[in-house]
What does this fold into?
Amino acid sequence: MNFSEMFHNSFSSVSPLKTEDELFKRVIERTENMENKKKISLRKPIVAACAVIMAVAAATVTAAAAGLINFNEIFGGAIKTQSNELGEKLIGNAADVKWSVSDDDYVVNLKGVTGTSDSLLAVIEITRADGKPVRNYLSNLDFLYERGFLTAFESVKLNDEFDNNGSGGCSTTINEAGNIEIRFSHSLTSVAGAKFELNCLGFYPTAEFNETHIDSFKILGMLGNSCEYYLDEIEKRALGKIELLDLSWSLEFTYTPSEASKTKIVVNNFNKPIRFGFDVSAVGGGEEEFKEFETAIEVIKADSIGIELKLSFVPEEYEAFWEYRFLPDSKKNEMKCINTDGTEIFLTPGAWSAGADESKYVVEMSLCYYDEKDVLATDISEIKAIVINGTTIELK
Amino acid sequence: MTENELNRIIRLFGKNVFRTAFCYMKSYADADDIQQEVFIKLYTCGKEFDSDEHIKAWLLRVTANLCKNKLNSCWHRRILPLESAFDIPAEEKNADEFTEYLFRLKPKYRIALYMHYYEGYSVKEIAAITGSKENTVLSYLSRGRKQLKDILLKEGYNEF
It folds into this structure.
């Protein structure tokens, strides 16, 4: 039996959980609900005895301080910023932030935004207007919080304009303050002044629910872990006794990369020297190993945006494919630029591609500038050498 | 898009979307969520398609993107497997042994193999769907085949 037959035999018996009719019906229902939520913003507690419908006033708030949001430490450490004026100029700002929320008990805050000319990173927090943790209002399942389970939510929906190529992503968590925090990153077009509209369709468990029933399996799924002994408790509480948060909000702001950030790269999570190596499949086995190879390194281009390198090597005893990964805690084989004044700028990877030609394996990668002292890239004309994987390439 | 058209496409490609999502997520429940989201996107995107093959490729691309987002989300990383926590018929948990072995591969290898051997896509088409370069897909296929073969040999499969 060949691979094709194996795949067909196996996957042909993988059947969707919903029938086609059920899926169709559900898609139509969800779409209609989405449309209705945009028109009428409701907060709908799940109460068996009665359904209370509250008319909601949307609050439109312009960002404080004349419309400019400055990203700073509150961004959460994911982005290193320069503490002086130069750093802020290098990154960008968000202007004319507006948001509206379906329930005036809740507030949406743009905590920070940064990015480059072609990517955007932002953090949004949803808090309660009375200052109490949002988490406390999500359900009555206090005992689960005490046991350290996280209550998570439906993912944030981005409008199609920014979601159609899948180049972005977002994560939703409960932060230390007990509030909902959303971090999202997305690619922008090369046009400055991108406008985002985030239509959050509500935070509620992934359970399908109505006034009389909650799918406890889904709630279990939401809470995670082996909670089977809580199942009865959840079911007892389910019918009308759990108040679920159903919040709709939209956030609209204009992000403009600063002039400086259009020509310099702002990098993200790496703040330590990077060890440069490869995952390869070992001879005779399926396990991966991390190996370092002697590489021939060619600088294709070095300019104010970054450096493009071509690395090639011939690991004869290994399979055709490998990938690099980063060990930010290791100080071995640093990747860095050395300036004429002796200061160092560490390199972090941007886009890269890998392939093989007839005789060797080749990586082409773009590297970005990052300074471990929180100072962003300086003028490339000051860079005299690049150190890659222990090899020093003199540029001057 | 009309409801009739949506219905038609669901019948044509609903299973493909589900199986692709299942290959990524290794979970019936997650694949079910993804499948639903994919068709909601289709219904609301307002996009014009040239052919059914165009539709299918779009559906699988969106499926791949949603799966990748979900796999990478903080929420997903904090969830532990639930198979032991709820009552699902045994035959639904995994299609068979083969998928269990396939699931030992990294997502990028197993989805490349699935797209090629089950959906019948070429390297170029897989690259377009998954957003990878063609050379990368070639490498995923090569490496995935080797790893899967090694697993199958260890598990006593002799003929393939």
Observations:
- Chain B has a mean pLDDT of 78.
- Chain B touches chain A through 70 residues (CB under 8 Å).
- Residues 3-25 of chain B form the longest helix (23 residues).
